[in-house]
Structures are given as structure tokens and as C-alpha cells.
Amino acid sequence: MDVKLNERGLLVVISGPSGVGKGTIRKALFEMPDNNFCYSVSMTTRKPREGEVDGVDYFFVSREEFERRIKQKQFLEYAEFVGEYYGTPLEYVEKKLSEGKEVIIEIEVQGALQVREKMPEAVFVFIVPPSKQVLYDRLMKRGTEQTKDIEKRIDKAEREYHLAYKYDYIVVNDDVYNAADRIYAIIRAEHAKTERSIHMYTKLMEGKVNGKQKH
Amino acid sequence: MDVKLNERGLLVVISGPSGVGKGTIRKALFEMPDNNFCYSVSMTTRKPREGEVDGVDYFFVSREEFERRIKQKQFLEYAEFVGEYYGTPLEYVEKKLSEGKEVIIEIEVQGALQVREKMPEAVFVFIVPPSKQVLYDRLMKRGTEQTKDIEKRIDKAEREYHLAYKYDYIVVNDDVYNAADRIYAIIRAEHAKTERSIHMYTKLMEGKVNGKQKH
Known about the structure:
The structure is a homodimer of 215-residue chains.
Chain A: E1 11-15, H1 22-30, E2 37-39, E3 42-44, E4 58-60, H2 63-71, E5 75-81, E6 84-89, H3 90-98, E7 102-106, H4 109-118, E8 123-128, H5 132-141, H6 147-160, E9 169-172, H7 176-192, H8 194-205
Parallel strand pairs in A: 1-7, 1-8, 2-7, 3-4, 8-9
Antiparallel strand pairs in A: 3-6, 5-6
């Protein structure tokens, strides 16, 4: 049996300014062969966009339902943005981590900073555009929203791109597959970090397990 | 022109108990396609083993020459082991790092801890065997040395394998190519670390460079 030096999965938080391409990178990550990733589906009160599927892209719930869950502390993080709630259900994340899965969450900056407080051992990746112009172009082209909403998103991106320093890693979205590859490298490296692997290594040297590093 | 978020190369210190396979892993790293690695050739006073080439495997120098260089502070680290000196010439390492090359050094534990003091920004990787028995078997099979030397090496390995906690990463040498792959992932991840990349990212957002992340 293979034994990892770090058996517990990692919580990987992918965040960055609106419009930077977080969702596309997340999808590219999940297309990687032999991955052990598990996507934490967020919950939201916003209406589904065309093609979005309940339970796959988001859990779509009512405002009342969302607020009931906030009161019951069922979220790892949640945020209100452009009048709608978005949140990460906590129980599912914990279960998958203990099963040794890497749980990938893709969230707004506001939510990521809440996760930092609750789970400092998570890995925080800030996705950045190759230039500010690229970001603005993407926000303008997203034709699904009204001008007012686009302006709000630009204002928010403007504030958010300064928050990179609060993250562990900065990954440029120059190309979606390059960016996903870099995140995969980060996950492998984090598993090999001494603070995560020394416990199992010590057991290995005492002959209590047969060791093979998965990552 | 491509611009890295971290332009300076990394000093990667590969270390671990004697007999763990550091040299084989280093060679596998250098066989990787499109690598930007540069090997820092160590200097030693020990006699060349069969097939070893001066200036490739080591710079072989006399004891007098080595001690003169110690006095002139020309080493990033040096150590005496089984009656022979081993050291890393400093000037070459600095030059290659500023050219943006990743400098890989493969050294004994004693030397690695000296580098930690002089260059704390380096990346420290501790190679470990999949079990203690594997390590002993390797040390016994290395037929180039006398029994007395093998015993000394085993004693040393016994003390050294407890020092993993002083390193940034622990990599199991279960398979040489797996181990090299993990080190490559560590190098990519380290370049994306916020503390190494935020300076260039800030410039990127101010429109001073066109950004593309190499790693």
C-alpha cells in the first residue's frame, strides 16, 4: 500500500480579482490526469446563468435558506456581493480533507480572507491577470450582466488586486493550462513541506509504515 | 519578452543522509527537458573515484589549496568528512543566481546547515530513504570504500536522518524520477511564493512590464 508523507488532503483556495479567470483555471485543474482533486461546490442566492447546473456549478438556494445556514454556522466562509450571497459549506470540506482529497475552492477575495482565519493551514493562491488591461477587457466582455454591475465589478477588482500580499502564492493567468500546472506544482510542493510531512517521516524511520510519497 | 514574476534564480540545496541517493536525483533533475538548472560543482580534497572527472563531478584540489580558500572566505559552505574537505565556491553561485539560473547544490547535512545561515532565502530539500533498511543496504553496497569508512557513514547517517526538521521540504527517494519531479514542483512553487513574486507583480499592475510567468 502506498503511504503519503502527508495523508490529509489540502484545502486549496483559488482566489483573485473578479474576471481574472478563476473558474476556467479550476476546470483545467480538474481535467488533469490522475488528480485527487475534489471541488467544493459553493452555495449562492444568485440566479443561475445560462448552462449552469444546480449542485455542479453552485447550489442555488433562496435568501431565507442561506441566512438560516449562516445562523447555524454551516459555512467555512460566505460573502454578499452585488446583492447576492455566496458561501462554502463547511461539513463537506472537512469530510473530503480527512479522506485525503485535495479540496479546491474557488472564491472571491472577501471569502478567501475569512478562510485564512478559520483554516490557516490551507493554501492560498491569488490568480492575477498578465496586465490590468486584460482584466478590464474580460470584465467588459462578460455580456451576461448589466453596465451597472460591470462597473461595480471593475471597482471591486481595482481594490482587490492590491490584496495579493495576503496570499501564499501568486499565479499569473497568462495561459490557463500554464496556470493550472503551476497550481498543481504548488500542491505537490505543499505536501512535501516539512511541517506537513515530518510526522509521517518519523514513523517511516521507526519502521512503522512502508513509505512511498504520492505527490 | 517573457518576464518572470521572480527574476532571480533560486539556490536549491539538496541534502540528506549519506547513501540516500542525492547524486542520482541531481543527475535526473538535469536530464529534465527545458530546465534552467545550473549545477554548482563542489570542491574537494578527496581522491577522484573511478570515472569521476575534475571540474564536472568535483574540483579536486590539494589540502593546502583548500585551506587557503577557506581563509579567503571563498566558500558558501565547507565541511570536513572522513578526513577530507568538501566545499561550495561562493562566487560562481552568486553569479548564476543573478543571471536567473536555478543553482542546484547537492551537499552533506553539515554543509547545508551552514548555507542556511548564510543564505536563508535558499530552498532546503532533505532527501530521505523509503525506509532505514534501504539506506543501510545502499551504504553497504557502495563497494568503493573500506569497512571502517562504511561504519563511519552509517554512524553519520544515523545522526543525520533526525535533522529533517531543519529543512523546508522532505522528499522520499522511492524512485529517482519521482523524487526529481517533486523537486521540480518545489522549484516552481517557490518562484510563485508571494514573498518572491510580489515585487514584480506590483510593477506588472502599474504597467511597467508585460508579464508572463516562466515557471
